[in-house]
DNA sequence: CCCGGTATCCCCCAATTGAGGTATTGAAAG
DNA sequence: CTTTCAATACCTCAATTGGGGGATACCGGG
C-alpha cells in the first residue's frame, strides 16, 4: 500500500531534528516540508505548508509543545499532530492530547516504530500507550452522562418538583411554592435522583431539559 | 508474569457463553465467577460478585449492553467492562465507551486475542481499534475549543467551565479535568454568576442551555 | 512604566445540598 | 384486612456550594 505524507518537525535539538529529517527522507512517500526549532517559528511556518502530520517535541525553548499544539489546531485543524517525548504516561502527554494532538511517540522509539506511528496517524489512528488510552477513555466517559432510555416513572409530585428544579428554584423556594416542608422537598429529590440515576440537581436538570 | 483475574460474562447466546466460559476456565489465573444471559440478571448478580472484568455483549434481549454498562459502572465502578461485539467501529462501540466500558473485543477474535484484551484491561489499558481510539481522543479534545453563543462577555476560560458545568460536573471534577485548583474553579464560577446574573449553578446551566 | 484584564491560588464562613436513616398518614391494590 | 406506594415530616452527618476577602503572575495597550 502506497501512501504520500507531508510532514513538519518541531524540535529544538538540531541533532534529533536531523535524525528525523533523514528518517523521513529515507522513507518512500514521506516528505519533510518544514523543520522548526521553536514554537514561535512553528506557528509562523506550519500554516504556510499545511503538512499532513507534525512531529512536535513536547519541550520547546519558548512556548510548550502543548501550547503550540493548541494554537496550531485552531489555525490548521486538519493537520494531525504527533507528540514527541522522552517520558511516557505523564500529565504532559495527557494534556497534549487534550490540546488536540492525536497521539505520541517516545524519543527512544526505533525508526520503524516512528514510521509506524506516523502511518497510524495518517490512517486515522491515535498511537499511544495503553495506560494513556485508558486515561483518555475514562476522561471521555465522564464527559458523557447522556442516557435516558428508560427513566423510571416519576410520580406526579416528583415531576412537579423536577419542573421547579429546572426553573432554577432552591429547595426552600420549592417548599414555599408547594406549601410543604423543606425536608419533604429533599425527600422527593432523593427519589428523583435515584430514579434518574443522577447525583446532583444540576445533572437532574440537564437530563430533564434533554 | 502471573495474574489472577475474576470475570463475569453477560451474553445471551448460550453457545457463545459456553465457549467463553471454557476459554476462561482453561486460562491459568482466570476465573469466571458469574455468567448472565440478560441485562437485568447482570445488574442483580454482578454487584454481588464484583468481578475484576465483565465481558458484556453489546446486544442483549432486555436492555442494551450499553445501558447495562452505564448502570453497572454506577454500582461497581471499579469493575472494568469489556464490550463484546460483532461490528467494529460503529456508534454502538463508541457509545459503550461513553457509558463507561474501557475497551472492546470483536466476536470473531481468536482466543489468544480475547485473553490479550482481558490482560490489557486488567493492566490498565483500553483495548480498541485505532479508528475508535482516534474518535475518543477527538471527542476528548473538544473540551478546549471555546465556541458558544455570546452570552455576556465571558472569557474563554469561563465559557469552558460553563460548558463543563452544563455537562453535570462538580467543581472538583472540573478542576481535575482542567488541571487547575479547586479554588480557581470557584473563582471562575463567581465571575460567571456575576456576569450571567444568577445565584446558583443550576440557574447558570439553565441559562446556558437556553 | 503603570494599568486593566485574565488566570491562578489561598483564606474564611455560612448556607445549601446529598445521603443515610426513621416514621406517619391515606389511598390504592391485592 | 394486609400490603404497597405516595406523600409527608424529621434527624444527623458529610460534602458541596456560594460569597466575601486577598494575593500573585503574566500579558497587552497606552
Explained architecture:
2 copies of one chain form a homodimer. Chain A starts with a strand and ends with a helix. Chain A contains 10 helices and 5 strands. Chain A has 210 residues and is an alpha/beta fold. The longest helix of chain A is centred in the C-terminal third of the chain and has 15 residues, at 182-196. Chain A has helices spanning 14-25, 39-49, 65-75, 91-99, 111-122, 130-142, 156-165, 171-178, 182-196, 201-208, and strands spanning 5-10, 30-36, 53-57, 80-85, 103-106. In chain A, strands 2-1-3-4-5 form a 5-stranded parallel sheet, sandwiched between helices. At the A-B interface, helix 3, helix 4, helix 6 and helix 10 of A face helix 3, helix 4, helix 6 and helix 10 of B. Chain A binds a DNA duplex (30 and 30 nucleotides) through helix 7 and helix 9.
Indicate the overall shape of chain A: elongated
Mean pLDDT of chain A: 85
Query: How large is the count of helical segments of chain A?
Result: 10
Amino- and carboxy-terminal Cα gap of chain A: 46 Å
Largest interface (CB within 8 Å) is between: A-B, 50 and 50 residues
What class would the helix/strand composition of chain A place it in? alpha/beta
Strand content of chain A: 5-15%
Q: Tell me the strand order in the biggest sheet of chain A.
A: 2-1-3-4-5
Listing every helix as H and every strand as E from the N terminus to the C terminus, the arrangement of chain A reads: EHEHEHEHEHHHHHH
Spans of chain A of at least 5 consecutive residues whose pLDDT stays below 50 are 142-151
What's the quaternary structure here? homodimer
Total number of strands of chain A = 5
What proportion of the residues of chain A is helical, as a percent range?
40-55%
Amino acid at each position: 500500500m502506497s501512501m504520500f505524507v507531508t510532514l513538519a518537525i518541531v524540535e529544538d535539538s538540531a541533532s534529533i531534528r536531523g535524525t528525523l529529517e533523514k528518517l523521513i527522507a529515507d522513507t518512500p512517500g514521506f516528505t519533510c516540508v518544514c523543520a522548526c526549532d521553536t514554537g514561535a517559528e512553528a506557528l509562523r511556518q506550519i500554516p504556510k505548508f499545511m503538512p499532513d502530520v507534525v512531529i512536535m517535541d513536547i519541550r520547546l525553548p519558548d512556548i510548550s509543545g502543548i501550547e503550540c499544539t493548541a494554537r496550531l489546531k485552531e489555525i490548521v485543524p486538519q493537520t494531525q499532530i504527533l507528540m514527541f517525548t522522552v517520558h511516557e504516561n505523564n500529565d504532559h502527554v495527557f494534556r497534549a492530547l487534550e490540546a488536540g494532538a492525536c497521539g505520541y511517540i517516545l524519543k527512544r522509539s526505533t525508526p520503524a516504530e516512528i514510521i509506524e506511528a506516523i502511518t497510524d496517524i495518517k490512517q486515522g489512528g491515535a498511537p499511544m500507550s495503553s495506560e494513556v488510552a485508558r486515561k483518555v477513555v475514562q476522561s471521555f466517559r465522564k464527559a458523557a452522562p447522556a442516557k435516558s432510555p428508560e427513566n423510571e416513572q416519576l410520580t406526579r409530585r416528583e415531576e412537579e418538583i423536577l419542573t421547579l428544579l429546572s426553573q432554577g428554584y432552591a429547595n426552600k423556594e420549592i417548599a414555599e411554592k408547594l406549601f410543604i416542608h423543606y425536608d419533604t422537598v429533599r425527600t422527593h429529590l432523593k427519589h428523583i435522583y435515584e430514579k434518574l440515576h443522577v447525583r446532583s440537581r444540576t445533572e437532574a436538570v440537564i437530563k430533564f431539559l434533554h
